[in-house]
Prior knowledge:
Elements: H1 2-27, H2 36-42, E1 54-57, H3 61-66, H4 68-71, E2 79-83, H5 86-92, E3 99-101, H6 108-111, E4 117-121, H7 127-135, E5 139-145, H8 152-157, H9 159-166, E6 171-174, H10 177-185, E7 191-193, E8 216-222, H11 226-240, E9 245-250, H12 256-269, E10 274-276, E11 287-289, H13 296-300, E12 305-308, H14 321-324, E13 329-332, H15 340-344, E14 346-347, E15 350-351, H16 357-362, E16 371-372, H17 379-386
Parallel strand pairs: 1-2, 1-4, 2-3, 4-5, 5-6, 6-7, 8-9, 8-12, 9-11, 10-11, 12-13, 13-15
Antiparallel strand pairs: 14-16
Helix pairs in contact: 7-9
Amino acid sequence: MEKTFFFLYSLLSFILYLFALPFLLLFSFKAKYTESLPARFFLRKNRPLKSGGIWFHSCSFGEAKAIKSLVDQFPKESLRMSTTTHTGFKVIQEYTNESRYLPFEPLLFGWMKPQKALVVMEAEFWYLLFALAQSRGAKTLLINARMSDRSFPKYQKIGWLYREIFKYIDEVYAQTPKDKERLESLGAKNVTVTGNIKLAHLPEASKELQKPSGLVVCGASTHEGEEALILEAFGALKKEHPEAVLLLVPRHPERFDKVAQMVEKFAKEHQCTTQRYSQNDVLGSDIVLVDTLGELVNIYAISDIVILGGAFAPIGGHNAAEAAQFGCKIISGEHYFNQRDIFDAIEGISVVEASNLSRRLLQHGVLKPAVIKNRSDITPMVESIKSVL
Length: 389
């Protein structure tokens, strides 16, 4: 049965690849994908990783950052890194020159070299990635694994697929006991609860910014529609605290220009000053659009209040621990389902409906600074990986 499934899955993925080729060619001309799509689907400037190393795969910018605490435990010459996003690739390049975009599954047959271990972050369930890596001698690990209340029913509907995938995963490190239970119901074996790796080692400020003298509010990792909410709330706060400053940090770089236009319009209507951080990193305006990557932790370090994006719409939220480590007062929306375990590990987060954001920000005086209650333990996965070195 396993050989039959492997053959059918491989054949289907190849057919899907051929069918998608015209669309992939078209999308590869878009600025957002000019590097990642050609690398992933046409292997352009994407040579195979050297064999014989520890291969870490993470998807996004946040996951690539979070895995650093684990990556740092191993010799640099043993590191092999991959990702699927442009922002994630910028991060993994800092770890090693052996960093690549992960090719689409059927291309792995000729691209993948034997490695000592494959370590995959969170929910990157690529069947051929695990099956081929294990068949070529790698110990396979899924780390920081989670199954949210929202996603678990979807996984159950195609549980037959995940049971096949888990046959090729030697060890699983789950975030919570509930995640362990759900993963095991889908066929996972050797599951250990280690907590969320994002709490194992939080990123530190890379430079010290000069804090403005007034109340500093950070609108962090915002998505479509959230900037308007935050600007409205800040406008109300500004009436009571004229010295207040807003540092607005959109999540995705491709939206920087659009948000800049929104900020400029708001500033004119409310007689505020504004600037783009990329053009002037001295925080001297009422509203500063932080339009560069890698600055968010530096911004958290000088913020009094953080309005954490990604949760005022059903997106799933973002890592509140990065702000909590500085004792910021944190306000979040209700839709933080992908970060529930991190939120549970932090005291003091104020969760509000989008319609109540302005009121809660005006009540900032009664909010408590956030405190991280516990961290995670990456020791079991470190020891497991070191056993194959």
